[in-house]
């Protein structure tokens, strides 16, 4: 049984491949699951009580986790101490960050593997508890489902065939074990065992599989409908997470434009709204660096951490974020001041990402003053000869990760052979990526298994030559870095579409309003050029607009497919409204931050699960009680294991109570049995049921009143007892209305009366205590009276 | 009086004995020590009891319950009091039971002028041997039918009752053992009649059970009229078992197991009768002892070697009803001893917690 559970859980965990990268995480998972299952099996073999088995399994889980992940911090290598807990929290925090900030497949860091091992260990505990003491092997499949749900919601490809098959095989094995070993299985199902059952299950499983396979083919538009392949159900609104990269692919694939942002700008060039940058390429998966230590509060005046040229174009952009929810604020580059925000916001001098300290970007309406240097190809060519001065730029923008795949290095090398100028190199890379070799596709990475980001994804992308903005942007950024150009990836929105509205800003021409939504989500590389600062490029074909300086006019022989004709530079010198530029708006510091959708959804889900558990708990408890009663024991001096007749009798009485025949305390067993048999209309009574009642009664009588020398009564085996009880149950069910049957299944009166007795026990004690106290006082008075008289 | 003295001592013994230890005390006073019969095997027991019951039912139509109870009392080494109006077959029942067993039967028709010595026997001086010789009285038989016991004088009644209790007769300092099995079936007419001496409560306590025959139902009565016209049905009855068989059956009954739970239940019944507000006199310890013995016989007749609460319940009414005395109020309210016992049995919990019982076991 334990083996079957372990097999099922490990099988289900196979589907996590793709959520986690590689297979390194599998061995700790197998060890954890195996140890927990083994511990419980051993305890059960030693006939420990059910509660002890579960506790033992939990202890084994804690020990093995400590031993695997926290050996140094634990006492004797496996006993958790205070340090262990501290370290575990650190790891859990890391896992939490990973979950929040990274997209699948994530690198299997210690934190996430610990978390997964813990979860799978708990799943084993849950399944074992459900399957063995509660005798609900089928219900224990819920645990497997919980494991499978994770990849199914996270991985764009779904749970995956291997994992699903392995999990199913494990589940079937589990059910099989339950049939072979558990005495209660038959009673549970209330049906006969044997060939019929097997045939039924095969037919049912086959039908379910057929429906699952055929239905998607029959339903039209599985590729584009509400949930095209690769997009995931996201019922909690657009977005959101700390890492925009995580949702980028999904956002692009959403058929409906969620998270609509409208903005009106005075800029003449298409405006990219930028929320955050990725600048570390080392990790397996890229995430924005928070740089919490260097952030500065207040967005009234934003000063970049590098020198900008003197000649700047100032633009005014009014942005309404609507329902878009993200910790980072989308602003045009380079922001100089942001006004009108609610809450406290901070900015990072290096990346100029603006982040809410107590708010998200939801329902913000603000005005951004942005400056941009007048960048021309000539200026870039000039800047491209100079390498950045030391200390001018943080190392993290130039550092080339050690694990850059060979194909990236080679490609970059080939592209930039003979080119000395950084700008020329950048253009070469952009031209290569925009060439006809590459196609823009949202689906190809999903199908190719390299949806997401990271260096390994990049290698796949360069081979397949098909992907979307994340791939193009990261390819260019990494290749630029390889060739010596400081680079980073900006994440935000490509220029939007005019809404047709105009927004009037005090005393000036109305500004054209644009809107972007999830489908405009975009990533693009920014390269650093000495003297000009960070300059955006556009390597993604058919998306965004190539800046005029990067258009291929300069470089000869370009085959770039620049789809945007809008490359007439209109440097519109806009005078800034002095008030907004000088006086930063007071920042209202109200503390009620709007919670993001995810925790709420988690609470709702947890609430629903709790409600379901509460609703099912009488049934589960009843089944547990039954299973406990029907367990075979081997009393001393008896031949074989048997169910104690008294417990079988209790079960019979409870069964009768469930179906409305309440046993009276003054009834003798025989009398009760006769009453039970008499309560069934003779038309519905069947011989098997009657005989079963009789046999159970006789066993119990012999046990309770018989000669103890015979060892009480031999007692029937668990199988026989369960058969008898199921015969009685079948007979009782036949005679009762569906309402009674429903009640017996879900709110068994025997259990409810037991609860009622438990709840009322304190009151009864209190009542009895009061009576006793009264009697005592009465006696005391009687005792005192003669003394008084004596006085 | 030596025997008188002995009797009181024994009585105290019985009272002191807890009914919970009933099984040790199943060898009741006066039981023949030494020649105890080997217990009859269950199958034979069943066959023999069936034969006896069939024989009785052959004569008395529609009174299977009464017949079974009579056999129960016989096997439990008790005495039976049959109380009913004249002419319903009291004597017939006793006679048939006696006749179906191959044993000594005597019948005493109690009259006011019957002397104790007529019952017990008398020592007569034998001229030839020049010694006093004991002439056994009517009581020296296996089954003694005492007809209309309430017609005898109190002195004679008490002589019989003493024999019943002691299973022996003491005349002139010599004790004479009664034959085994020994059972007195006394009949009594409940209707107040002139010249009767109703048994006092203390003496009714000596009878293990009291039954009333009741009128037969219509069909049985018609059949009775049909079959009993020409020839006495009693003539058809031939002994089906021997006295030794009955003794072996009695030994088997004595070996029936009584569990702690049943003892507790029996004691609980006794306490309930004593605590009942409707009763002036509850069940005595001796009555509980007899209740348990009757239950054992019932269990044995049912083919079991252990007693169920059902056995206790089955005999509680005939065993207890004639020993308890109603409060005057209760009698006025229409209660009968039978109804009170039924009410007690209906409200008394049989077993508190079988799960706890299982843990203990």
From TrEMBL, chain A:
Positions of the UniProt region annotated as Disordered: 553-588
Low complexity composition bias: residue spans: 575-584
Transmembrane segments: 25-43, 50-70, 106-127, 134-154, 160-181, 202-222
Superkingdom of origin organism: Bacteria
Record flagged with keyword Signal: no
Coiled coil: none
Positions of the Transglutaminase-like domain: 461-541
Pfam families from the UniProt entry: DUF4129, TgpA_N, Transglut_core
InterPro entries in the record: Bact_TGase-like (IPR052901), Papain-like_cys_pep_sf (IPR038765), TgpA-like_C (IPR025403), TgpA_N (IPR021878), Transglutaminase-like (IPR002931)
SUPFAM superfamilies listed in its UniProt record: Cysteine proteinases (SSF54001)
Keyword Transmembrane tagged: yes
Keywords from the named record: Membrane, Transmembrane, Transmembrane helix
SMART domains: TGc (SM00460)
Name of this protein: Transglutaminase-like domain-containing protein
Lineage: Bacteria, Bacillati, Actinomycetota, Actinomycetes, Micrococcales
TrEMBL record, chain B:
Compositionally biased spans, kind Basic and acidic residues: 10-24
Domain ATPase AAA-3, chain residue ranges per copy: 79-208
Pfam family, one: AAA_lid_2
SUPFAM superfamilies: P-loop containing nucleoside triphosphate hydrolases
Region span, Disordered: 1-37
Sorted UniProt keywords: ATP-binding, Nucleotide-binding
Entry GO MF terms: ATP binding; ATP hydrolysis activity
Taxonomy, superkingdom: Bacteria
Domain ChlI/MoxR AAA lid: 272-343
Similarity-based family: Belongs to the MoxR family.
Protein name: MoxR-like ATPase
Organism: Arthrobacter cupressi
